[in-house]
Amino acid sequence: MSLDQRSAEDFGQFALDLHDLGGVEETVEAVVQFARQAVWCKHASVVLITRGRRPEIMALTDPQLADLYHQQIAAGIGPLLTVVETGEPLLIPDVTAEARWSPQWSEQVMAVGIRSAMHLPLLSGGHAAAVMSLYCDEPDGFEVDDIAIAHILARHASVAIAVARNDASMAQAVDARKLVGQAMGILMERYDLDGDRAFDVLKRYSQDNNRKLRDVAQELIDTRKLPH
């Protein structure tokens, strides 16, 4: 597929569709499906990177890819982790000619029917917040135009996923504040406490039990009792 066949209007509409989806899972799934069509690859996936820099498998077009990622994560080595560490795109024209990782990696990838791969970091704040991976069942499966299209897609996906994750974090923060406020109200009414003292009680239970404040608040709301 030539680059001029994938018009700017197509990518513009794709970007609008991504932002309209809202949720992280929906956004990631849309990226994977569009990538497979835009680049005409056999498999595609998006793996999110958590705050602890751990990969979190979010969307893939073949469940066998999950096994490949779990094997890389367990071994602590592989192209996915290399892209996370470097923040740089990685093109693998022929997996049989790759010697940067363990021999087992090539065997595992070939067993899934993959012969060439492309991994692109979805950057946020200069770091890989996710990795989009595309796979072909033939060596040298990606032409120059395919690579260009994938890079354009990665830029759109980076923005959309970052926005979706930020919206999700804000929604969770608002929800947590509501829960804590409700729990404080219960403590204030039951034990005749002021707001500061009620919050201190919740915080102490959170620290003593090594649990998130919102979880302590939720349990108090559900059971009307403080956690043991």
N-to-C SSE string, H for helix and E for strand: HHEEHHEHEEHHH
Beta-strand residue fraction: 15-25%
Structural class: alpha+beta
Helix content: 55-70%
Number of helices: 8
CATH class of the largest domain: Alpha Beta
How many structural domains can be distinguished in the coordinates? 2
* Average pLDDT, all residues: 85
Task: Flag low-confidence runs.
Answer: none
**Which radius of gyration do the C-alpha atoms yield?**
23 Å
Shape call: elongated
CATH superfamily of the largest domain: GAF domain
Distance between the termini: 62 Å
From the 3D coordinates, which CATH architecture of the largest domain would you assign?
2-Layer Sandwich
Q: How can the largest sheet be summarized?
A: 5 strands, antiparallel
Description of the molecule:
By secondary structure, the chain is α+β, with helices and mostly antiparallel strands. The chain folds into 2 domains: 3-169, GAF domain (Beta-Lactamase, 2-Layer Sandwich); 172-223, Arc Repressor Mutant, subunit A (Orthogonal Bundle), CATH 1.10.10.10. 58% of the residues lie in helices and 15% in strands. It has a 5-stranded antiparallel sheet with strand order 2-1-5-4-3, sandwiched between helices. Helix 1 runs parallel beside helix 6 (144-191), helix 6 packs across helix 7 (195-208) and helix 7 crosses helix 8 (213-223).
